[in-house]
Amino acid sequence: MKRKNTKQIIAGNLKIGGDAPISVQTMTNIPIDDIDENIELIHRLHNAGAELVRLAVKDEKAVESFGIIKKNVDIPLCADIHFDHKLAIAAIKTGADKIRINPGNIKSQEQVKEIISTAKEYKIPIRIGVNGGSIDRKKYEHPTPQALLESASEHIQILEDNNFTDIVVSIKTSDLNDTIQANMLFSEKYDYPLHIGLTEAGFGNSCIVQSSIVIGTLLYNGIGNTIRVSMTGDPIQEVKIGREILKSMGLLEWGTKIISCPTCGRTDPRFDVLKTAEEVKTRCDELHLNKSLKLAIMGCEVNGPGEASDADYGLAGGHDGYVLLFAKGKKIRKVLIEESVDALMEMLSIAIYE
Ligand code: SF4
């Protein structure tokens, strides 16, 4: 999968675009003035693998809160601002590593110039966020891919007219096909980095499937530099799903990938494949491995080790209360079912230090 060449922008210590790895970002979902709760949430998001967190900044008090939060976390923060140039300027001055604002929504040219000159002074990139609601409804009845591209172009033009090119763009709708096509059209025309994802993607399985299709399709075509899975609910899940998408596509170079079989009549009912796989995943997540490893949890020892022969380590359901511990398809030893996860984790801790 060949990545499209784009310009690189820098938000705090995070590079986006160019040869930078694809990053995972998210947004807090609690009021910004709950400062302690935000700090705690951002720490958890960071631990889960978020590389940038966005917060909605809607008034002057929010700018103050943003500044305090920024001083207490160790991850780039983006301030999300609508319409108000004073808030944008204040957010930059208070420590934002990036701001999201659409210059076409700012009242006057003078105000846009003020934002740009502050962003330049503080070396802060600007994210233009185009979505279905931001297109000109007088010209376009629906947010077609062409309409979305045109809207992005208008915002970009304003920044370029002011010699500002530290830009990252997102073009999102809640429609899979329109979002994919709009991002493809954009990447044919521009070399600005793209923040990709679906907006208003819903919740649960439907959100996971749709977001994976959009992000996966674009990444497969070399498009996209930073991703966000927008999900109603816990933002930690957004980060975990985002990382799973990157892992699945071989774009995340560290962490554990767990494969497991669907089970069938060959599975010894005493070996609960799902429960075992979930427990292994939880314990691996807690380890924050900095090494790529593939683990397999398979339902039988007849086909399991063979089908998962590319896994570094695995367990295959056996009989008489035992399962097989294997590595690269080769048997290591039999272990009791209730001791199997511990045995696998022991192999893992040896592998980490190899
Ligand atoms: Fe069935 Fe064994 Fe294949 Fe799992 S690995 S699906 S238990 S044959």
Would you kindly provide a written description of the structure presented here, covering whatever features stand out?
With 354 residues, the chain is α/β, with parallel strands linked by helices. The protein has 2 domains: 8-253, TIM Barrel (Alpha-Beta Barrel), CATH 3.20.20.20; 256-352, Sulfite Reductase Hemoprotein, domain 1, CATH 3.30.413.10. It contains 11 helices and 15 strands. It has an 8-stranded parallel β-barrel with strand order 3-4-5-6-7-8-9-10, surrounded by 7 helices. Strands 11-12-13-14-15 form a 5-stranded mixed beta sheet. Strands 1-2 form a two-stranded antiparallel sheet. Strand 8, helix 6 and strand 9 form a beta-alpha-beta unit. Helix 5 packs parallel to helix 6 (176-189) and helix 7 packs across helix 8. The longest helix is centred in the middle third of the chain and has 17 residues, at 145-161. The relative contact order is 0.09. The model has no long low-confidence stretch (mean pLDDT 93). It binds iron/sulfur cluster (SF4). Residues 261-264, 266-267, 298-300, 302-304, 307 line the site of iron/sulfur cluster.
Features:
15 strands; alpha/beta; 11 helices; single chain; TIM Barrel; elongated; Sulfite Reductase Hemoprotein, domain 1; 354 residues
Topology:
Blueprint: E1 8-11, E2 14-17, E3 23-27, H1 35-48, E4 52-56, H2 60-71, E5 77-80, H3 85-93, E6 98-100, H4 109-122, E7 126-131, H5 145-161, E8 167-172, H6 176-189, E9 194-196, H7 204-220, E10 226-227, H8 235-248, E11 255-260, H9 273-287, E12 292-298, H10 304-307, E13 313-317, E14 322-327, E15 330-336, H11 340-352
Parallel strand pairs: 3-4, 3-10, 4-5, 5-6, 6-7, 7-8, 8-9, 9-10, 11-12, 12-13
Antiparallel strand pairs: 1-2, 13-14, 14-15
